[in-house]
Amino acid sequence: QLNMAKKKEAFLKEFKEGPLQFKPTYKFDLDSEVYDTSEKKRKPAWTDRILWKVKTLCEDASKEGELPEEENLISVTLNNYVSHMSYGISDHKPVTGTFKLEMKPLVSDPLVVLNPEGEWNAEHDVLIRYSAAPELPSSAWDWIGLFQVTFRHVKDYVTYAWVEDDEISSSRNSKQVYMSASEIPKTGGEFLLCYYSNNLQSIVGISEPFQV
């Protein structure tokens, strides 16, 4: 029924689905893996499905009459598409999909280049040198955070320095800020520096990994 609908409905043609390598997910007797034994004896069906579609920039640009050079900034790959027969609280069996999402960067060069200076340890304040691209919309609320290399979120910082309040030197090509030794991890490890832009609400520069 879905395949027939995809042939007729234009919007459905753009959606993808993984291979159906699991049994029909409907209709089951409750708390069992037995298909409908009621008087209706409904035929088993693949009722529960996961479809996906990646929206491209072309869809937005076409409204304005322009097409971008880079059409697909996002790609999605289906890694896993399964049903879960152990659930019995409904006459359906739930279906899940696991996807890999890849995003191309919107810019080829970082807006900020960061470098830790000297030896980093918890015995003294440390220095950071950075340079920003002219197009960076800088703010007094921008900050540079120290992160473990395994960080997952912008709030996972170990400590941070304000780019204006903690600035100690400035030149045409670069600026220097300090970070207090009191918050540097004494246990050490491998870390990164990240520049957070308040205006862009995102990280716009990441240093190479370095040892503390």
Characteristics:
Deoxyribonuclease I, Chain A; mainly beta; 31% strand; 2 domains; 3 helices; four-stranded antiparallel beta sheet; five-stranded antiparallel beta sheet; 212 residues; Immunoglobulin-like; elongated; 11 strands
What coarse outline follows from CA principal-axis ratios?
A: elongated
**Total beta strand runs:** 11
> Can you tell me the CATH topology of the largest domain?
Deoxyribonuclease I, Chain A
Structural class: mainly beta
Q: In which range does the helix fraction lie?
A: under 10%
Count of runs of 4 or more consecutive helical residues: 3
First-last Cα distance? 60 Å
Strand proportion, as a percent range, falls in: 25-35%
Provide the CATH superfamily of the largest domain: Endonuclease/exonuclease/phosphatase
Order of helices and strands: HHHEEEEEEEEEEE
What is the highest CATH level, the class of the largest domain? Answer: Alpha Beta
Poorly predicted spans: none
Provide mean pLDDT, rounded.
90
Number of structurally distinct domains: 2
Q: Could you say what the CATH architecture of the largest domain is?
A: 4-Layer Sandwich
Give the radius of gyration. Answer: 26 Å
Biggest sheet details:
5 strands, antiparallel
Protein name: INP5K phosphatase
GO molecular function: inositol bisphosphate phosphatase activity; phosphatidylinositol-3,4,5-trisphosphate 5-phosphatase activity; phosphatidylinositol-4,5-bisphosphate 5-phosphatase activity
GO biological process, one term: negative regulation of phosphatidylinositol 3-kinase/protein kinase B signal transduction
Organism: Peucedramus taeniatus
